[in-house]
Amino acid sequence: MAVFEKRHLWLAVLAVLALALPLLVANGYYLHMMTMSFIWMIAVYGLNLFAGYTGYLSLAHAGFFAVGAYTLGILTVKVGLPFWGAFALSCAFTSLLGLAIGLVALRTKEHFFAIYTLCVGYIIYLVIDKWDSLTGGVRGFIGIPAPSDIGPLSFQTPVAQYYLVLFFLFAVIFVMYRLVYSLTGRTYIAIRNSEELALTLGISTMKNKLASFVLSVFFTSLAGALYASFIRFLGPDIAYVTVMFDFLTYLLVGGIGTLAGPVVGTLLITFLSQQLQFLQDYRMLIFGPVLTLLIIFYPHGIAGGFIRYQAKRAEARRLEREANQTAAELAASRQGRDGRYVKEG
Q: Half-sphere exposure (CA, 13 Å, Cβ side) for 115?
């Protein structure tokens, strides 16, 4: 119970810090960087739901991110729909696309599934890059509007957009928390641990994998739509495989299969990237060895390693209490026997 309350205390502290950041930091660049970090976190949570909790590695999520972004741009600029209607439709369309792809992709397993989704992601990139009349091709897609007002709420300033993205991040974390600690979440974990055993328990693995995949695509498309409304310019590079591996890096560094992993990994890598800007393209000479060492010594990521360390400490304390209790019982029993022998003598 104490661990539960302590964990929630830390969550409350982090939430307060995130809410107070625009008041504490006057530099607009740092505000922009944090807003982008929150968008990446939402996308990584989508990847984490499927890869971390269901056990299937999807390499098409950068493509779904781009589909959500481009769909919002096309619906607002070319079709002329109101922003929030286009926002909802972009997430719905990408989720339906994920449903169609998942129905086929989930008939494969393990590395075959990863290869299939990698191909899907690359096809999405090619469609965006080559379909000039719809997406603008290599010239990019411009003119995407900022989020429109909702009653008295205006989202035209960077601070307002920061809080809008933060609101969606809090909503995604809340949904992830409720899902992971529900029966559905435990079903996903059972599939991750042993799909054959889950089948013997009567779990419909295909249905649950498909639901997890579509929800993860929805989260990623939500991040893409937020990205389009925040940057307001799109290029085909956002669908390229390098973005997918950025998502994987954030997740692996933070901790795959943990709720805190996307936040920890994204913030850490974003901060390090900014500190190493002066190295330009040579940054990977530092990132490569660091990531290799992290995967070797912390295969479950920073958050995952910390959780396991806490679990080991709790287990050690439990064993110590049991040993002390056993020793006390033995001492009491020995004292009782000694007293009985003295009385009989």
A: 6
Give the contacts of 203 (CB within 8 A, at least 6 positions apart): 187, 190, 191
Enumerate residues 6+ apart whose C-beta is below 8 A from 254: 44, 260, 261, 262, 263, 264, 265, 266, 268, 301, 302, 303
pLDDT tens column, 66-123? 999 999 999 999 998 999 999 999 999 999 999 999 999 999 887 899 999 999 999 9
Instruction: Give residue limits of the domains in the chain.
Output: 24-284, 300-345
208 within 8 A of 187, measured Cβ to Cβ = yes
DSSP 258-314: -SSHHHHHHHHHHHHHHHTGGGGGGGHHHHHHHHHHHHHH-TTHHHHHHHHHHHHHH
Domain topology for 24-284: ABC transporter involved in vitamin B12 uptake, BtuC (1.10.3470)
> What is the distance, to the nearest Å, from the Cα of residue 97 to the centroid of all Cα atoms in its chain?
20
What one-letter code names the amino acid at 151? G
Q: What are the tens digits of pLDDT across the range 18-54?
A: 888 888 887 788 899 999 999 999 999 999 999 999 9
Q: What is the mean pLDDT of the chain?
A: 86
The amino acid at residue 190 is A
